[in-house]
Design a protein that fits this description.
This protein has one domain: Cytidine Deaminase, domain 2 (3-Layer(aba) Sandwich). It is an alpha+beta fold. Strands 1, 2, 3, 4, 5, 6 and 7 form a seven-stranded mixed beta sheet that branches. The protein contains four helices and seven strands; from the N terminus they run E-H-E-E-H-E-E-H-E-E-H. It is globular, with a radius of gyration of 16 Å. The longest helix has 14 residues. The protein binds tetrahydrodeoxyuridine. The site of tetrahydrodeoxyuridine has 13 residues, from helix 2. This is Cytidine deaminase.
């Protein structure tokens, strides 16, 4: 038996002012998107914004449905839209924010497991890591690749073995 450890590296910031101008703009886009989410059931609004390699910004937000599982998270709405619109362009960065009860959340909200899996496939597809910015009002956490948030991941390599 051998015990191993997997280490995740997270960069933490106390204010959006500490981010680059590019990242700040992306966070503002994610916030804008959160305010347009369709969330009649949870009232939990998530906004995602992507910066693509060609400089385009793409926004997404969660879309809910009376048949609950038919809805989709903000991150996947953004990634699938980007992949549908610009299939040859890599995703460089994603910023994620959440808004509920009239204000943006103080703490950063990390993406759900399914969104992590989709972001992982997107990294693989374009052979380029995606920087993930989790933006809360009091704390911002950044990881340099979705793999930091999804250790022991399943990907297409396993299908080929
Ligand atoms: N949600 C997202 O949009 N992204 C996530 O990564 C986690 C959850 C949405 C789904 C649902 O509309 C609401 O938040 C409450 O779960």
């Amino acid at each position: 038996m051998k015990k191993t450890q997997i280490i995740t590296t997270v960069f933490e910031y106390d204010s959006i002012d500490e981010l680059s101008t590019e990242d700040q703009e992306l966070v503002l886009n994610a916030k804008e998107a959160a305010l347009r989410a369709y969330t009649p059931y949870s009232k939990f609004n998530v906004g995602a914004a992507l910066l693509l390699e060609n400089g385009k910004l793409v926004q997404g937000n969660n879309q809910e449905n009376a048949a609950y599982p038919s809805g989709l998270c903000a991150e996947r709405v953004a990634v699938f839209y980007a992949n549908a619109q610009y299939p040859d362009v890599a995703v460089k960065t994603i910023a994620i924010t959440s808004h509920t009860n009239g204000s943006f959340l103080e703490s950063p909200v990390p993406p759900c497991g399914s969104c992590r899996q989709v972001l992982l496939e997107t990294e693989d597809r374009y052979k380029q890591p995606i920087k993930v910015i989790l933006c809360g009002e009091r704390k911002i956490k950044i990881v340099e690749s979705i793999k930091q948030l999804l250790p022991l991941f399943f990907d297409k390599e396993m299908l080929d073995e």
